[in-house]
Amino acid sequence: MTAGTTELSAGALYYPDVAATRFYVGALAKLSVLQYFVAESAVIGAWAGAEPYSRRTGYISDLGAVSCGEFDGRDVCSPAHLLMNASFVIQGFGMIVGALLLGSALMCCAARAGVPVRQGRMPGRGRWGAGVAAAGTARLLTGAAGAGTILVGLVPEDTGSGWHVAGALMYFATGALALLVLGWLWLRQTPLGWVILACGVVSSAALIAAGLTGMHVPEPGTLERLMGYPITAGVAAAGLVVAQRVQHERALRKQARAQTG
Prior knowledge:
Layout: H1 3-11, H2 21-31, H3 35-45, E1 69-71, E2 74-76, H4 81-101, H5 104-109, H6 125-154, H7 163-185, H8 191-213, H9 220-260
Antiparallel strand pairs: 1-2
Helix pairs in contact: 1-9, 2-4, 2-9, 3-4, 4-6, 6-7, 7-8, 7-9, 8-9
């Protein structure tokens, strides 16, 4: 066994195959949620209401409202509503694709140095099983959050359907929980675990505050963004962790092939 192979066995012999292309695609899908911030800024720039749109007082869903006029006591007019709603849908699909492609076993070990496999068995089997279960829960919650934001995009707030509110609540609640679970799982594995956990805490606290106040606060836009922005940032951070890990494993394998070739 060469030195390169020895190094590789200490850093890349896992279950599953961390360097697989599907995991890289899944990581990029999670990173794609960042397009939301670009789309939101563009839609705000096109706002045509009587008063300039403010992130502090304006609801996010107002940007996706189809018609111009008064809605729930607010003057709403978003000519670029199609872009905003498309961004919601793209964000949702990115979360769902990421949840589907990034398997539970991969999510369990993607942020740490790895657990070597010997004869197909994992050392510390009990802890491994708990980690896989937590990762599976995070995947399920992330997928549900993605479905929620797709509903938000497909059913704008001024359509008169309760599905919009249901989708928004699904996104905020399950998205925050997903980050809490994943942040806890990765807490000692990567510094970004703390970031992901913090995003979940902020989003959860804001959601609780919104429930207690009924959004009757001086800056409802700020409160809503404290619920939503951390989810987008946390999901993207998770995608970054996995993408970096996949690239690292591919680099190790390339180095090993070069040394043995």
